[in-house]
Amino acid sequence: MKISVIIPMYNEEENVTKTLNEIDNVLKSFDDYEIIIVDDGSSDNTFKLVHNFISDKNNLFLFKHEINMGMGKAIRTGFENSSGDILVTIDADLSYEPGDIPKLVNKIKESNDIVIGSQYMYGGKTENIPFLRLFISKIANKIVGYSLGDNISTVTGVFRAYKREVIDSLELESNGTEINPEILSKASAVGFKIIEIPVKLKGRELGESKIRFRATTISHLLFTFYEKPMVLFGLVGLFILLIGIISAIYLFYQFIIGSLDPNRPLMLFMVLMILSGIQILIFGFIATQISILRKEIYLVQKENKLIGKKLK
Q1: Among 93, 183, 202, 228, which one is most buried in terms of CB atoms within 10 A?
Q2: Residues 223 and 156: beta-carbon distance below 8 Å
Q3: What is the SS3 assignment for 189-240?
């Protein structure tokens, strides 16, 4: 089986040579492999360094975006230009160990569809990650993982292996880091088998992180609300409804003791809170039904793409 390793790069001139050397050396244990590097509009010497590195190699390929379009777009470009039976995605900064690539590939060969390199599952490790960033990342992964409903501990990491069939059957849209949970969401919805194996994630040694942590966290939370809208509508609706109920209890107490003034603004406030809370909960229910319908559409798209591929 041919292995394609896809590496999105953006301003990684400090890491180019070391990263490509390590990954290429690991992949030499496979009979057939290729490395797809996607330069996502780098403004430094990344493109030149990669071009020089691959000049005498016939299984390393370089593609370039003229402007920075995001990790998701770079990964999708890699998918589109790869020819392997098993596709592996990995960061360019060696935050994940290239030596773990064969572990992911071997698990794919054991009839799994997606294998995630997970630093947060039992047996996984982290090293030299700032405490606050690590804490927020763990919380975000738990929240997004809950929205997927598959008990996955690491849903935002890029270090994964996929069967070609998985990627070919999904309609991927994300340009940013949210592509990672997007793939899992759509793959889970159509019944692909997803597993995790423990790996180590370490802090970047060279260069600066290109991920805007706050923006990434917000995008992942928005993805959670998109996948499970009742998380947002339910919490907001229940909170507003609770305020209305508490107001109603207070007004009823005023009525019992004979001091209730029907013209008090609190009467209107109570009615608005109760009606608004109920309405928001109804919105959440409708949005949940739309989310379920969307996942059924994913299944139809998968079947149509597989039928089209067979006809070709």
Answers
A1: 183
A2: no
A3: HCCCCEEEEECEEECCCCCCCCCCHHHHHHHHHHHHHHHCHHHHHHHHHHHH
Instruction: Please tell me what DSSP assigns to residue 62.
Output: E
Question: What is the per-residue pLDDT across 58-116, written as a single tens digit (0 to 9) for each?
Answer: 899 999 999 999 899 999 999 999 999 999 999 998 899 999 999 999 999 998 999 99
Q: Could you count the other beta carbons within 10 Å of the beta carbon of residue 193? A: 14
* H helical segments located in the chain: 16-27, 46-54, 71-80, 101-108, 131-148, 164-168, 179-189, 213-227, 229-256, 265-311
**CA dihedral angle for residue 52, residue 161, residue 30, residue 12, rounded to 10 degrees:** 20
What digits encode the pLDDT tens for the residues 226-259? 667 666 777 788 888 899 899 888 888 887 887 7
- Side chain identity, residue 99: G
Output the pTM of the full model.
0.74
